[in-house]
Design a protein that fits this description.
single chain, mainly alpha, 17 helices
Length: 411
């Protein structure tokens, strides 16, 4: 009996850890963030009427979810270094299902905003642990390729999320959008049950739970890691500024329907995914970062000029596509360099990397709604692109010893 059970476990382990399962599973986990933030974007204008709330108050639901996504990664990252990847994943999935169900029945905008915070914390587990699993499995050039493939898969989420959200909104209202999120959570929870642990007991942190935060000190001492994190955070702040402003610019200023907005958003998401996928064509990830930063800075200035002069939707959308494509280039490159620098504490390093982006995004999101949204959005784009460029230049200029992990072999 024991021999049979042992044989079955070995077979099951091999099946669950196939390359196909790993890539699809990691792609779904990293897509968690876009689904949580993007799927209900077409609903934002409608929710102002439902809750009888102002635009800025409704946008706080987006801000609170991003704060949750930041805080949750700080929590789940070190825990995954301590207890492995699987257990924290299961806990995060359970919390996500409970908070999403509660969002559907939220009676006031204040309660909804609070629940969105909890939902963001829960979804963060999947985001931060997915990068840690990739780092467990791959090294060097193969890690860059794995993250690029995951980034391309992740591109499906922002494409599908607003399209599905816009379609559901026409039939059921914003509650139906969260019903779809609930189904996605159930699917991911099932996948988590079948996931086989990727971090062995020997490689787990030996620190006590009360001292897990001390792991952050180790990664924060790596200057190249910190600079890559900041470069990525400014780029993500630009992205979240676009996410927060685009429903109001496209629907209210240009007069398009929620479903038409979702189609615009889908096209723009393809641009991001394409940039992430093509980043591996660069021989050096440092070159990719510099190319991305230059593109973001130039394009953000052009987008600002277009918004300030009330350009046509064709001009605005064309410039936005190029801007988001250049942004996609940096997501894979900065993630690869940062995770290589923090390989010894991959969970903690992934936590800070993801948390910084969502923290910056939570600050930027309400700013684009202040005053004239056209001008405030353009200014936000330029400031974020400039910050990303400066951090990127200093990150690639810093010379550090090449680690053994750069060999490019697969674990």
């Amino acid at each position: 009996m024991k021999q049979t059970q042992k044989t079955w476990q070995g077979t099951s382990k091999k099946r669950r850890n196939s390359a196909f399962f790993i890539f699809v599973f990691l792609g779904m986990l990293t897509a968690f963030g876009p689904f949580v933030t993007d799927m209900y974007l077409p609903s934002l204008p409608a929710m102002t009427s439902y809750f009888n709330a102002s635009t800025s108050l409704v946008q706080l639901g987006l801000t609170s979810s991003m704060l949750g996504l930041a805080a949750g990664q700080i929590l789940f990252g070190p825990l995954s270094d301590k207890f492995g990847r699987r257990l924290p994943l299961l806990v995060s999935m359970g919390l996500f299902l409970a908070s999403t169900l509660a969002c559907i029945f939220a009676p006031t905008i204040e309660i909804f905003i609070t629940l969105r915070l909890l939902q963001g914390i829960a979804a963060a587990g999947g985001i931060v642990i997915s990068r840690s699993i990739a780092t467990d499995k791959f090294k060097g050039a193969n890690l860059a390729k794995a993250l690029a493939i995951i980034g391309a898969i992740n591109g499906i989420a922002p494409v599908a999320a607003p399209v599905v959200g816009g379609a559901v909104l026409k039939v059921t209202g914003w509650q139906g959008v969260f019903g779809i999120l609930l189904l996605v959570g159930i699917l991911l929870a099932t996948a988590c049950v079948h996931f086989n642990e990727s971090l062995s007991h020997a490689k787990r942190s030996k620190e006590k739970i009360t001292r897990t935060l001390s792991l952050f000190k180790n990664v924060l001492q790596k200057r190249k890691y910190v600079l890559c994190v900041l470069q990525m955070a400014f780029a993500q702040a630009l992205l979240f500024g676009y996410i927060a402003a685009s429903p109001f610019i496209i629907q209210q200023h240009y007069g398009f329907s929620p479903f038409a907005f979702s189609l615009f958003f889908a096209v723009n998401s393809v641009a991001i995914a394409t940039g992430a996928g093509l980043s591996v064509k660069f021989k050096r990830q440092e070159t990719c970062i510099l190319t991305s930063c230059a593109g973001m800075l130039v394009c953000s200035l052009l987008v600002y000029a277009a918004l300030a002069n009330d350009a046509s939707i064709l001009v605005f959308e064309s410039l936005l596509i190029v801007l988001l494509f250049t942004m996609g280039l940096t997501f894979t490159a900065a993630t690869t360099l940062a995770m290589e620098a923090a390989r010894e504490q991959a969970g903690t390093g992934s936590a800070l990397l993801g948390a910084a982006g969502f923290l910056f995004g939570s600050i930027v999101s309400p700013l684009v709604g202040m005053g004239d949204i056209m001008l405030s959005t353009g200014i936000t784009f330029v400031v974020c692109a400039l910050g990303s460029t400066l951090c990127g230049i200093f990150a690639v200029r810093r010379k550090e010893p090449v680690s053994d992990s750069a060999a490019g072999s697969v674990c």
